Amino acid sequence: MQKMLFVINPAAGRSSLRDTLMSVVKIFSDADYLVTLYITKCSRDGQAQVAAWAHQYDVVVCAGGDGTLNEVVNGILSNGADVPLGYIPVGTTNDFATSHQLSRIPRQAAQHIVDGQPFGHDIGEFNGVYFTYVAACGLFSDVSFSTPQALKNAFGRFAYYFEGARKIQEITQDFPLNLTVDGEEINGKYCFLAIANSLSLGGVLQFPENLVSLSDGILEVLAIRAPQNPIEFHNLMRAMVEKDYNNNLIRCIHGKEIRVQSDIPLAWTLDGESGGEHTDVTIRVCKQQIRLIY
């Protein structure tokens, strides 16, 4: 019998797991797993518990949103355990699940974990901490963690749209960045910057599948320049809808190591959670660092 650590964030999403929790645990139990259930109590609690105990288990599973997954991944990597990870997405946006086409129905997700195989997945390292799919700064980057949890639970993804609408006036504000990608300097003024390993950002920006591989040891750098007039604003919106990420407003670059320097502290988000304010960050890809079951 294999041992499973099952970490659940009870505050994530709209609690789609509550009514099916026993069914999910039964699926794992019927597959001959001895399940230890842990309900997180506060922010970073899941990370601390996984960091302390992951090496004593054969598999770790987490249920929550992108932030919960971020905590568990950081816990596994800080523990140094070579343990596969299963994910049941019950958060609000679930960008990571979108990229991997993971089921949002808890029972189905659990069955896929039981039937699936672990595959290597790239992880990003941001000044010594890890992110699963995106590090971002600038316009709208703080929407996910500045949106109240109660609003997320009540309205789902629309809560982000409500919060984002309040910030739309900031779209013409940009900031100078010294950007270095694999040794090449790409400097300029931008209103948004994302370093990602994902097909979806915030449920709004979608990367073409032929542009992104989630296990190739490469990160995508998306830099958006602030539109200066209504025509440029229209062109930006159209480019985002049409997934045109190489034009005079949007630039997409690929790289393994990215350094971002700014004159003023910029607020960063890591997987939708606050990453603090920084003037100098170094981001590296960790190729196939996590073994994800799907």
UniProtKB/TrEMBL annotation:
Entry GO MF terms: ATP binding; kinase activity; metal ion binding
Swiss-Prot/TrEMBL GO biological process terms: phospholipid biosynthetic process
Keywords: ATP-binding, Kinase, Lipid biosynthesis, Lipid metabolism, Magnesium, Metal-binding, Nucleotide-binding, Phospholipid biosynthesis, Phospholipid metabolism, Transferase
The protein's required cofactors: Mg(2+)
DAGKc domain sequence ranges: 1-130
A Pfam cross-reference name: DAGK_cat
Protein name: Lipid kinase, YegS/Rv2252/BmrU family
Native source species: Peptococcus niger
